[in-house]
Amino acid sequence: MSSTPTRVYLARLVGLPIFDPQGDQVAKVRDIVVALRSSAASQPRVLGLVAEVFGRRRIFVPMTRVTNIDSGQVYTTGLLNMRRFEQRSTETLVMGQMLDRRVVITETGVQGTVYDVAMEQARNRDWVLSRVAVQEPSKGFRRRGQTHTVEWRDVEGLARREETQGATHLMATLSEMRPADAANVIHDLPQERRLAVVAAMGDERLADVLEELPEEDQVEILEQLDSERAADVLEEMSADDAADLIADLHPDTAATLLALMEPDEAEDVRRLMSYADETAGAMMTPEPVILSPDATIADALAHVRNPELTPALAALVYVCRQPLETPTGKLLGAAHIQRLLREPPSTLVAAALDDSMDPLRPDATIDEVAAHLATYNLVAAPVVDDEGRLLGAVTVDDLLDHMLPDNWRDQAERPGPITGPVPGGEG
């Protein structure tokens, strides 16, 4: 590792791409695994990296496989063992278990929390944790407390278990991740650490992350929140995801949370829950982009610029008679954004409708929905009732969520080791 910096701060490694010798990205860094020594003053040995491949799978990359680390990437020998990473009792995760740990600087008696740690290569070529970055609590009107960077041996408190560990600095790292990536980190945290992170998250961010977690994690987290906050988080989730989650709760808990939600939000969820599982009605999103017949293409483009819309939802707009909230008045048709981009902004959207698009019925099965989207090369399709009123839209991501097995986020074991680029490693 001749070109590797002599000291590497580990919080800065998280999210960096991992490349093989050919320059192909094979994974991303998600955490660092260390082994604490029996003597608290002895520098812990860095065992390796927790890396994410195949979009979701987490594997272990020993430090002996790391050939170079620079400011923007990590290089390996290219040989990866694809067995899923399982943390051992003798191992500690830097991001998951060290950040935000309360410590004391022994020489000065200063107390604070850990916001980063650094590793260096020892004479025997092992990597060890060498320095600790500590932040004091804020005082008065100061935005942040004073920071200190000290030798590992000069800090007390990192070797012992702490039940009330905070989450401030881990939250700073999670805030820069996509919801799916943050969900992966939270899924792997010890239970007490996960609770601290969830408590520190805002309702909207927690809702985004919950939508990416396995069902059992969703239920466990929601049941640990007080009822008022749980209802607030459900309101921030998309109605179809909230309906799926509420359906997994105990009926008494579900009834309590629905009663605490805003009436309009609860009504959307109840309506989705009224449809049979694995049907268009149960899968659909009740809030697609809906426009009146007098809306212009400029109006449509302004609506789909909303960053909260998924790409699939932003691909189509639906023109309906009043009322414009589902269930709407009669659906007049749908228009593809790609078509609207080719038309003058002052043109009415109603003049660019796709006359060939047939709507789905709410009782359409998952296979019928898949066949419909595949046949007509669609990423979304309207769902209407017997009177032709728009009830919602089924998107391809809704479909995939229901077609994939329940444990798709925990992919099946793959044999390893393998060499070369890992399919799906980018992202």
UniProtKB/TrEMBL annotation:
Domain CBS: 353-411
Pfam families (alphabetical): CBS, MgtE_N, PRC, SH3_actinomycetes
Keywords annotated in UniProt: CBS domain
CDD domains referenced in this protein's UniProt entry, alphabetically: CBS_pair_Mg_transporter (cd04606)
Signal peptide positions on this chain: none
InterPro entries in the cross-refs: CBS_dom (IPR000644), CBS_dom_sf (IPR046342), Mg_transptr_MgtE_intracell_dom (IPR006668), MgtE_N_sf (IPR038076), MgtE_transporter (IPR006669), PRC-brl_dom (IPR027275), PRC_barrel-like_sf (IPR011033), SH3_actinomycetes (IPR058838)
TM region(s), chain numbering: none
UniProt protein name: Magnesium transporter
Top-level taxonomy: Bacteria, Bacillati, Actinomycetota, Actinomycetes, Propionibacteriales
